Amino acid sequence: MPFDLILRGGRLIDPSQKLDARTDVAFAGGKVAMIGNELKADPGTDVRDVSDYIVTPGLIDLHTHVYWGGTSLGIDAEEFCRTSGVTTAVDTGSAGPGNFAGFRKHVIEPSQVRIMAYLHVSHAGIYGFSHRVMVGESEEMRLMNPIDAVKVAEANRDLIVGIKVRVGLHASGTSGIVPLDIALEVAEEVGMPLMAHIDHPPPSYEEVLARLRPGDVLTHAFRPFPNTPTTAQGTVKRVVLEARERGVLFDIGHGKGSFAFKTARAMLANGFYPDTISSDVHTLCIDGPAFDQATTMSKFLCMGMPLSDVVAASTVNAAMALRRPELGSLKPGSAGDATLISVQQGQFDYVDAVGEQMIGDRKIVSEGVVIAGRWWHPKQSPKFKQLAG
């Protein structure tokens, strides 16, 4: 099969293959076809000179809200992904069993960007989230809909990767941890992982972790006090270490109020890296403090996390959390998605969810994306000149 596209001469960083080398990568039929030096182009092959850039597997943002028009917190997935380097946006609970059909038909299916979803156990998902209205959907127990959640998850296994629930003072109020128990029943019934949001207590970080199973994801894992994973002495809480040992996954989910540099510095100093880095992008944080996936990744790079680990947390690790091994990799036969980035040097101002500012010396910049084996970018930038086939 002739190649549809060759990215020529970039620095390829693919943690799924433990690969960091300057080489070519070719795509055909919507998939990765081959990696190698000086790959031969056919007359119709789109060949792009990417020698000044880093090529990674298509970035996966494990925590987004992209039910645009269907929820007040939803942003436009295609617009976001064009500028942030994301090729797979995972929506985490914007829709529940009562409105997932609309999400699928009107947003997911028309999208050129891959959208997958955690289905909320609450009937209408996260429905009351705006500048003026803030209603914790898990506080209203009459909206818990486990029976229909099972039906919808079973009927949409091609897109639904797990079950979502939000617990904490703001999300579940006086219902406490009960919504998590209901969501776990649904996840168990359909054989899917669960993603749990946590905010202010109650319940406590410890109570939530105690219930999570291997493969379940705790998002907002590096959140500020209260409900932080670190002790006052700057060590990692024992329950956190025990949860990781039994296979619980820790996701960043930056968002509007769920990430603190203080927490992250302590966790990284103890060698506790996040399993996945995600932006939790939505209408209330896309203009700051989260901004996008590349900015969230940059914060970890500036705090000392090696670039290969930052890329892994946004590619292969996220794919494993989704149980979709065809994603997050540039192995031949994998989904034909790639992200082009550069790492700029200088002084860059970053801010966390509690207002702390950090001057970082590096910034990851999204330069372009390949989706389903085709060049996909908002403008045909002259810096990616087409070479003769």
UniProtKB/TrEMBL annotation:
It comes from the Bacteria. One of its GO terms (molecular function) is metal ion binding. The record marks 166 as: Transition state stabilizer. Zn(2+) 1 binds at residues 63, 65, 164, 280. Transmembrane segments: none annotated. Keywords: Metal-binding, Zinc. The modification N6-carboxylysine is found at residue 164. InterPro entries: Amidohydro-rel, Deacetylase_Atu3266-like, Metal-dep_hydrolase_composite, Metal_Hydrolase. It holds the Pfam family Amidohydro_1. The keyword Plastid does not apply. Zn(2+) 2 binds at residues 164, 197, 220. Residues 54-343 form the Amidohydrolase-related domain. NCBIfam families: PRK09237.1. This is Dihydroorotase. It comes from Bradyrhizobium valentinum.
